[in-house]
């Protein structure tokens, strides 16, 4: 399995482990953004893994149109080749498909994977129960990828190293994927996102726009 597939599994696992509903608290958008339909009970609600994967992959409709899913939102924040867009490949991976990816897209998936797992530690820890839930959702990934996820889960949080690893053009995508792994119910998490935004040269207004996309509380007034 590619790192793209592993990223899709980790995305679902972290959202299950961290509690999807908490991400929505205090959101400013009327329908709760990308994750709003989870709380509305579509496709089985947050307790149904298949339903969560469908929503993240854009297989639910909001206002008569496909939501575009997590991949669609990421695609809107970065520049990828139109003939093989990263967002569509990620949506396929979230659904358990095995997309064909380039070396560049594998490298992008690794950056986003590290960003999401690191962000999940922003409250100071990923406890044993959360780690178990995340690893359980890996399924049939390669031993190498499973070892990488475990290593990132157990490594000390290093925001600066993550910031320095982000390729030009992926700053907003890294920020968004990090936001989705955070409950935003503690000062530590808010401070982490603030440090990440500043390190990636993301302005307060752009940060607020990204938060609005997923119905998350905004950091800046």
Describe what you observe in this structure.
Helices cover 58% and strands 2% of the residues. By secondary structure, the protein is mostly helical. It has one domain. A hairpin with a 2-residue loop joins strand 1 (61-62) and strand 2 (65-66). The longest helix is centred in the middle third of the chain and has 18 residues, at 103-120. The relative contact order is 0.18. The model is unreliable at 21-33, 36-50 and 60-67 (pLDDT under 50).
| Average of pLDDT | 74
| H/E element sequence | HHHHEEHHHHHHHHH
Instruction: Give the beta-strand count.
Output: 2
Helix fraction? 55-70%
Helix and strand content put the structural class at: mainly alpha
How many whole angstroms does the radius of gyration measure?
A: 16 Å
Fraction of residues in β-strands:
under 5%
Low-confidence sequence ranges: 21-33, 36-50, 60-67
Main beta sheet strand tally, sense and closure = 2 strands, antiparallel
Strand order of the largest sheet: 1-2
When the domains are counted, the total is 1
In DSSP terms (H or I, runs of 4 or more residues), the helix count works out at: 13
**How far is it from the N-terminal to the C-terminal residue, by CA?**
43 Å
Shape, principal axes of CA atoms: globular
